Amino acid sequence: MKEQKVKPSILPGFMELLPKDQILFNKMMDTIRRNYEKYGFVPLDTPLIEKSEVLLAKGGGETEKQIYRFTKGDTDLSLRFDLTVPLARYVAQHFSELNFPFRRYHIGKVYRGERNQKGRFREFYQCDIDIIGNGKLSIINDAEIPSIIYSTFKDLGFEDFTIHINNRKILNGFFESVKVDKKIEVLRIIDKLEKIGYDAVIKELEEIGIEKDSIERIMEFIGIKGSNDDILLKLKELNIENEQFLLGLDELNKVVHYIRCFNVPEKNFIIDLTIARGLDYYTGTVYETILNNYPQIGSVCSGGRYDNLAEFYTDQKLPGVGISIGLTRLFYQLREAEIIGENASSTLSEVLLIPMGETLDYSIEVANSLRNEGIVCEIYYEDAKIGKKFAYADKLNIPYVILIGEDELQRKMVSLKNMSTGAQNIIEISEAAETIKNRL
Amino acid sequence: MKEQKVKPSILPGFMELLPKDQILFNKMMDTIRRNYEKYGFVPLDTPLIEKSEVLLAKGGGETEKQIYRFTKGDTDLSLRFDLTVPLARYVAQHFSELNFPFRRYHIGKVYRGERNQKGRFREFYQCDIDIIGNGKLSIINDAEIPSIIYSTFKDLGFEDFTIHINNRKILNGFFESVKVDKKIEVLRIIDKLEKIGYDAVIKELEEIGIEKDSIERIMEFIGIKGSNDDILLKLKELNIENEQFLLGLDELNKVVHYIRCFNVPEKNFIIDLTIARGLDYYTGTVYETILNNYPQIGSVCSGGRYDNLAEFYTDQKLPGVGISIGLTRLFYQLREAEIIGENASSTLSEVLLIPMGETLDYSIEVANSLRNEGIVCEIYYEDAKIGKKFAYADKLNIPYVILIGEDELQRKMVSLKNMSTGAQNIIEISEAAETIKNRL
């Protein structure tokens, strides 16, 4: 009697990669990690499951509906939906054991029961950094963040990207100065400018009852363009006497000055008065990052400054600044657009050893030598025709094959075959190792 | 009115580390990964949440009770409880897109609702490798595995550990030869030898009705000791004509031969006829790894050979061999025993830059240079007394401080202070970079 099989499949909205893509994905993750570490951030890892009471302390909103929440025994549990809430909980919980400013990075999976839709994921990686101050945090940190974004995306292989920078205090102060009190609503509409265009923004502003005069001034304000210095000058020349506005402008001037100290090229960052990043969390500098040839992807790295990380858990005032890269979505988009993935390899192996005849002992000796040299290699042990063994190397895209027959064994040498050129030579093991290591 | 705060805490049975320990933990994980990659294994990453129907295809047993299982909408979901079932599902699902033998590693979190107990975790990392064959898989793979265990634990800093090796076919064949048909029960009892001792094993064998003669032969068999060659010889001299037994003995002879080819020192592996590794999964070679100075930790790396990875999902016959390191538990035990963690640092930063006076622009220039040299550094931006800045470096265990005052700025140099010796010198930036890089 034949057993009933269960159809092997995963849930919709979950990303699972074949080795070729997984290797690419991990390379990107390693690059991000290396850059985060270079700037002195320390790693954190928090549980994926937390008490619902803790994770949902802030409560309300879209997020709560999307959450994976369940009970085990009589405990109410939830899967984390971002890395910020766990950070807030962590810092509040371990406050006395941490040193401030606390610079942490966290690369991990988060969960949201999103509507099932192409390019939307229910399980995805976020790669976050945050710098948390105890009571206060220097504005210079806000200028270091773009330098980290720049360094990271450059290392990821991008040249043509722009970090868009704004300051919420400037926005808030400006709205106060034009006597608009529906700030949140107006910000939400302005945030859509890129998506819906000028006319639609004006129409929506009218719909929420903003006066004609104010709309004109708002559109003039968000229409301020030019070089970074031009924009800073035009903002100054608005002669707005609002305290928030002036504070924000001062911050933005400092941020721009120090971004330049960090050698971020002028073409890679721009003041953009239209970005606001969400509604009630950020309080100062905000960032978005656009790949200029692929604006349809949207922001690939966003974040900003906030006044109070952990207000739901502690009375400690913990201002911070941070960014997040949504790696799963970014990878998916880059892969779909075929920006990455060409000529990708399905293996990390640099060479496949193929023993022929009674040469396995010697072949293992050769593998030992290569591995001692740091070369990633594997031996084809299976009983198969030589063609099948070569096909294996070919399909995985392994750059070299080492053939070891009786002749090579006698002479204590190896036949090294370059799989792309087809060239094959009998050489010393050490020479083969050098060739493989120096191939790039 | 003051808001009610939520007490920041995590669930019992979940491990969360302070930066100092997290850095150590990640170093261990990196070491394991590097070794797995060196042997040509490719990375895999599967969803943490799967369909319950798929994850529990095998069904039954302790595991099912411990599982985190819940519904979202009308979908029955479970968190993975190991990395083997997801591998089986993955290989069955992607069978036609994979190349065999398929060598994969997977480092990820798994979930088990264990009884709440010190040293038991409900969320823990497993670090697995498996080699999966299509239809068949050479026995040489079974000999390569100990070489990977050896290389990994050596890199983790251990010297005195032993890989215990056995073969289930030898056990099965032996039991057949002594006409014991309660193999599973007998194996389970023998597996406890280390824990409960000889007398208790005999007692338990009597209790399940094994005859006195058979018990004597069993105890004689599992009492076979000596060097690896001694044991192989004694097994041969038992003159057991059982087919399974002879097949297993032949496999074990080959495995020992090739382990030696892989240069695993004789003192680091031993044939141990008492280990069986679970009851119904393994079918050939089995492994356990013991840290000889800390036997109480139990096996730190275990696994073995199985005939059929994915029988619940596919008719394809997929034999494999693999091992797993339970990293969370291992880390916890090593940390508790104070084997690791001494002089651990709370940062990855190699140097803290402290600007004094109006030298921030220049300080950032210095940081740029150091980071270009691959040095991990951070700048202390906050407004604070110099003592507090040094205290920060001290608490984090940052090995160097660079002081940059007006004098250093004028001379385009830096003051480099070694935090352990207290020595301080005004030197060129490049010299400082060299000193920091060469400190080890």
From TrEMBL, chains A, B:
UniProt keyword annotations, A-Z: Aminoacyl-tRNA synthetase, ATP-binding, Cytoplasm, Ligase, Nucleotide-binding, Protein biosynthesis
GO CC annotation: cytoplasm
Entry superkingdom: Bacteria
CDD domains noted in UniProt: HisRS-like_core, HisRS_anticodon
Protein name per its UniProtKB record: Histidine--tRNA ligase
Annotated ranges, domain Aminoacyl-transfer RNA synthetases class-II family profile: 24-355
Originating organism: Caloramator quimbayensis
Subcellular location, record wording: Cytoplasm
Subunit structure: Homodimer.
EC numbers on record: 6.1.1.21
Residues that coordinate or bind L-histidine: D82, L83, T84, R112, Q126, D130, R277, Y281, Y282
Gene designation per UniProt: hisS
